[in-house]
Design goal:
There is one protein chain. This protein is α+β, with helices and mostly antiparallel strands. About 40% of the residues lie in helices and about 20% in strands. Strands 3-2-1-4-5 form a five-stranded antiparallel sheet, with helices on one face. A hairpin with a 2-residue loop joins β1 and β2. It is globular and about 55 Å long.
Length: about 210
Amino acid sequence: MISYIKGPLTEIRGDMIVIEAGPVGLEVRVPLSLLDELPKVGEEVKIYTYFQVREDSMSLYGFLSRQDREMFQQLLGVNGVGPKGALGILSALRPDDLRLAILSGDAKAISRAPGIGVKTAQRVILDLKDKVSADDILSSVAEDGESSGDISWQGSGGDAVKEAIQALVALGYTNAEAARAVCRTEVTDTMTAEEILKASLRHLSFL
C-alpha cells in the first residue's frame, strides 16, 4: 500500500498529475476540485494516495488529506459507485461540501456529478449518512485557510449541530456557508438546534 507520495509536481494534465519520486514520475488521478489547491509546477507537493489494482490495470488516486482519501474510499463502498464515479463526485463537490450534502440529504447536489443520477445520489446519502460526522466537517472548516481566524468551536453539538446546518441549507445558504457560520458560533453541549441556528445567522453577513 502506498500511503502518500511527496516530491516535485512536474505536470498537470486534466485530472492527472505527475509527481517525481526519485528517478520515477508517478501518474496520479485527482479530483478536479483539488487542482486549485495544488502548488505550482516544480514545487513540492504531498499527496495521500489510494492504489487500485485490477486484472488489466493499476491506478493511483490522490488527495491532499487523509480525510479526503477516506471520503473517496467510503464512496467506493457504495453500490454502483466505482473509482470513476467517486472521482467525479469529488470533482463536482469538495469533500466537505459532499459531507454536508450527505448530512442535509441534498441528492440534487450530488447528482450534478457526471454519470451520477438521482437514485445513485440517494444511495450515497443512505449508505454514508451514519459515517459522516458534523464534528469532522466543522473541525475541517476550522482548519481551512478560508476561515478568518475567529472560529471558536466548542463541544460536540451532536444532532443539534446537524439540524442547524440542515436548516441553514434549507434557507438557501450553501453547504460551505452553513458550515462556516456554525463553526464561528460558540456552541455548547446544552444548546438546541434553534439556538445554534439563531446564533449562526448572525455570522452569515460576515462570510
